[in-house]
């Protein structure tokens, strides 16, 4: 079962991830929302759509924009709607 961790803290765990471009997209309900802080950062992917970001906050430490998601993905990426992926030192194993 894939588990996402950062700084020794489990961020997400689920046996229902979707892998796209080697990134595990975890269901939103597998992540403790208390660890997430809204961010104004956005990016655009030609085939997935517009991504939004969140900052991880663990034990007072912030990992800015370490989480991303597609609130309204394009049809080609519909399977990642309602899911979050990680980077910036977050380990998924």
From TrEMBL:
InterPro entries reported in the protein's UniProt record: DUF427, DUF427_sf
- List each copy of the DUF427 domain by range: 4-88
Give the protein name, as stated in the record.
DUF427 domain-containing protein
Q: Which organism is it from?
A: Sphingomonas ginsenosidivorax
């Amino acid at each position: 079962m894939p588990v996402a961790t950062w700084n020794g803290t489990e961020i997400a765990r689920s046996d229902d991830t979707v892998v796209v471009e080697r990134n595990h997209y975890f269901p939103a309900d597998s992540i403790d929302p208390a660890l997430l802080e809204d961010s104004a950062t956005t990016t655009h992917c030609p085939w997935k759509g517009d991504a939004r970001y969140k900052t991880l906050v663990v034990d007072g430490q912030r990992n800015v924009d370490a989480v991303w998601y597609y609130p309204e993905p394009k049809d080609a990426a519909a399977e990642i709607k309602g899911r979050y992926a990680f980077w910036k030192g977050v380990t998924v194993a």
